[in-house]
Write a structure and sequence with these properties.
alpha/beta; 8-stranded parallel barrel; globular; binds phosphoenolpyruvate
Length: 241
């Protein structure tokens, strides 16, 4: 399966900073060993679109609403992302779930809507530290996948990002053994649900010094990277493992 290296910029980088990043990153992009995808904040999407024209680097939004347009003040439209040339939408990131109260029902609507538009949803799942310590990880991930993909089309592109909540932005990366074990579980849940070949990315404090080991683990098809994707050199290094 092809590798995917995705960058979640959260609420960082102005349009100008976005242009400056890509001016440098494009020079290094040929070293990437898989597909590279950027998720800038919504207001910088147009700058990303302009900067990436004519390259094979992909981009998309960090969230969207489950309808293309209408009286939905403050939401992002996946149709606008598509019009800008974007091809991915990140859905159900743990910050969306925790800070903005997104639930699996809304997430399922978004996944189906995005697939219907011909874009690729990148669905984020992951357990909290309490859930892991209580040995509920498998059950939590199975529930998030079953509910979040309840309306998904099995014949359309889909990417899953496994991101243990306790590893996001904390510097506490999951061990290679934990990553291998959990990715194997996610792979088998997806298989049981009838989703054939889905890329499963790992996310949570991925850095240039741990990426090479993590990417070798079972059923790891690449990474979703937050903090380390904000700097050209560190993300280019991660994308070249
Ligand atoms: C993320 O935001 O999805 C993420 C994995 O962040 P970080 O790499 O900073 O842990």
């Amino acid at each position: 399966m092809k590798k995917i290296f995705a960058a979640n910029w959260k609420l960082f980088k102005t349009p100008q900073e976005t242009r400056e990043f890509f001016a440098q990153f494009k020079e290094l992009a040929n070293k990437a060993t898989g597909e590279v995808v950027f998720f800038p904040s919504a207001i910088s999407l147009e700058a990303a679109s302009e900067s990436l024209k004519g390259t094979s680097i992909k981009f998309g939004a960090q969230n969207c609403y489950s309808q293309a347009s209408g009286a939905f003040t403050g939401e992002n439209s996946a149709q606008v992302v598509k019009a800008l040339g974007g091809t991915y939408i990140l859905i159900g990131h743990s910050e969306r779930r925790k800070i903005f109260g997104e639930d699996d029902t809304q997430i399922a609507e978004k996944v189906a809507f995005v697939q219907g538009l011909g874009l690729t949803p990148m669905l984020c799942i992951g357990e909290t530290l309490e859930e892991r310590e209580a040995t509920h990880t498998f059950r939590v991930l199975e529930t998030q996948l079953m509910l979040g993909l309840a309306k998904a089309d099995k014949s359309k592109p889909l990417v899953v990002a496994y991101e243990p909540v306790w590893a996001i932005g904390t510097g506490k990366v999951a061990s290679p053994e934990q990553v291998a074990e959990t990715h194997t579980d996610v792979h088998s849940i997806l298989n049981k649900m009838g989703f054939g070949s889905v890329a499963i990315l790992y996310g949570g404090s991925v850095k240039p010094d741990n990426a090479a080991n993590l990417v070798k683990q079972a059923h790891v098809s690449g990474f979703l990277v937050g903090g380390a994707s904000l700097e050209v050199k560190s993300f280019a290094e991660i994308a070249s493992v």
